Amino acid sequence: MPFARLALAALLAGTLAHAQAPTPAAAAPAKALSAGEVLDRQLARLEREFVPAAEALDEAHYGFAPTAGEFKGVKTFARQVRHVASANFQFAAGILGEKAPVDLGGDDGPEALKTKAEIVTYLKASFAYAHKAFASLKAEALAEPIPSPWGSGTTTRLALAVHTVDHGYDHYGQLVVYLRLNGIIPPASRQ
């Protein structure tokens, strides 16, 4: 457990340093950010990369999953996006200590969401809800034990916030592969 806390502290300190790095054009010192603001900036960065990637693939290919190589049983593009959106809702609800405001579905999100438009709308709503949760983060409660949103045990608001971002980037990397396999340069990689 001490290592996990040390790793989270190092991640937060590194993120804080990155978020407050001086820019050449900055004349006045930057305002000190709260941990919640630092984490929310990381969430916003993920959102700026993930949502355009989800929008970049045309509807006809939303059911795409790679088949050449070691891809047996992987999620389709649509399921990747629904999975991240559902996880965003689940983690944010855990931070807020409330029931998720939408159907989370199974591991791949709600099966009822079929079209690209429905899935992207669900994804955007998940980021809005996660921003609400991150805005509620207070330094004194970051490491306080809270019930785990997946059923058993406890976690912390800090762990859920960090996991929201790292989980999203894990799946963003997969979306990048799917886009490139379909001849699409991910929006974040374009000039």
Molecular structure report:
With 191 residues, the chain is mainly alpha-helical. It has a single domain, classed as Four Helix Bundle (Hemerythrin (Met), subunit A) (Up-down Bundle), CATH 1.20.120. Helix content is 55%, strand content 3%. It is built from five helices and two strands. It has helices at 2-19, 35-56, 77-96, 116-135, 157-181, and strands at 145-147, 154-156. The chain has a two-stranded antiparallel ribbon. A hairpin with a 6-residue loop joins β1 (145-147) and β2. It is globular and about 50 Å long. The termini are far apart.
Compute the number of strand runs: 2
Neighbour order of strands in the largest sheet: 1-2
- What is the correct CATH architecture? Up-down Bundle
Q: Determine the strand fraction and express it as a percent band.
A: under 5%
CATH homologous group name? dinb family like domain
What CATH calls the topology is Four Helix Bundle (Hemerythrin (Met), subunit A)
Uncertain runs: 1-13
Radius of gyration of CA atoms, rounded to a whole number? 18 Å
The overall pLDDT average reads 88
The number of helices is 5
Please state the overall shape, judged from the principal axes of the Cα atoms: globular
- What is the C-level CATH assignment? Mainly Alpha
Number of domains: 1
Write the H/E string, N to C: HHHHEEH
Bin the helical content.
40-55%
User: What is the terminal separation in angstroms?
Assistant: 43 Å
Structural class: mainly alpha
Q: What does the largest sheet look like?
A: 2 strands, antiparallel
